[in-house]
Amino acid sequence: MKVNGKQYRFLEESLESWSKEGLLEEGKKATLLSALQVRSFQWRMVAQYAFWAALSSMALSLLAVIMDEALMEWLEHLFTLQDSTRSLIFAVLSMGIFLFGGWFKSRQSRHVFSQELIFFLGAVSSAASIYYLGQAIDTGSGHYALLLLLAAIIYLVVSICLESLLLWVLGLLVLAVWFFAETAYWAGGEDQPFYGMSYPLRFFCFSLVMLLISYGLTCFARTRAYFDSTQFVSLMMLFVCLWVLSVAGNDNYGLEPYEASQAELWLWRLAMVVASGIALVMGFRRDDSILRVSGVCFLLVNLYTRFFEYGWDEMHKALFYALLALSFWLLGRYAERLWLELTGKTKG
Q: In its keyword annotation, does this UniProt entry include Flavoprotein (predicted)?
């Protein structure tokens, strides 16, 4: 079994403790230790960071091309084809990339990061195809949200076919952007409320639907692997929206000033506490680390936000930061005690 240095030391200390307590024979301890192999360097992590850097650099490269007017003019002269033809070319190119990615995955199934990089190139080509499709069929209505929906559907369907987590997450993010654009279109503008709902309230409802769908994914073998990522994205969106609502209320951020009442704000604050509590309870019952961490983190975010709201103007800054330091110290002490209990160590 291959472990890193930190894991090896932890296992060695645990086996030593069990051996001293008579729970483990000395010979068994030596056998277990001999089965461990320490990894000298975590090349997998290096590969992961390198591919993320490659994706980021690729995105920056595309952005630089778009921002460079001279280069864009040169590309326009280079590609003198009609928009429909460009869309078809990029569609064929993206299909070829996805097919190559599927073939590469069947041959090199362990090279996860290389696979995802290929799939990302296919996603970029698909986006270009959809963009030129929109240019070709544009009627001047400004309803470009349908193109985003098409992109989201393509990413999600292809991710299921090719078992790509990157494409799935990308599809979820594009789906969220589609929801933003679609509600803005039907509301009559980006600064207009949608049936009285601001963007945080809209996305709160959207994230609830996504969260319910994430649990439905576990019913099918093909989509079961996407449960964690869908749950994580929807939970982050849900809690961030609740946090914004607890600070600003149902503000549509339009031209007209809006001031939420304290009753409305406290309603959202209570909703955030309840949501955090439900996430904690469900996390412990289901042994779900994503739910537990989300519940704890946003419960603390809620408490510290209220502390800043009501303490910043009322307290002397020295007292404010002293209480803040004390709260972090108590939190650290509690976390340290839990860590010591879990690792079986005693305080010296």
A: no
Looking at residue 333, its amino acid is R
CA separation for the pair 97, 294 (Å, rounded)? 36
Q: Whose CA is closest to 168, among 213, 138, 103?
A: 213
What are the residue ranges spanned by the domains of the chain?
Answer: 1-40, 81-189, 191-314
Task: List Cβ neighbours of 276 (8 Å cut-off, separation of 6 or more).
Answer: 239, 294, 295, 296, 298, 299, 302
Whether the pLDDT of residue 133 is over 50: the answer is: yes
Q: What is the DSSP string of 59-115?
A: HHHHHHHHH-HHHHHHHHHH--S-HHHHHHHHHHHHHHHHHHHHHHHHH-TT-HHHH
The answer on pLDDT for 321 being more than 50 is yes
Compute the distance between CA of residue 42 and CA of residue 50 in angstroms, rounded to an integer: 13
pTM: 0.71
Cα separations in angstroms, 33 against 24, 218, 227: 12, 38, 36
Query: The tokens of 10 are what?
Result: 């932890």
Which residue bears the tokens 């704890």? 296
Any idea what DSSP says for residue 226?
Answer: G
- In Å, how far are 30, 259, 269 from 263, measured between CA atoms? 64, 12, 10
pLDDT (tens digit, 9 = 90+) per residue, 16-70?
777 777 776 766 767 776 776 655 545 555 555 566 666 667 666 666 655 566 6
Instruction: Identify which of 272, 320, 323 has the alpha carbon closest to the alpha carbon of residue 294.
Output: 272
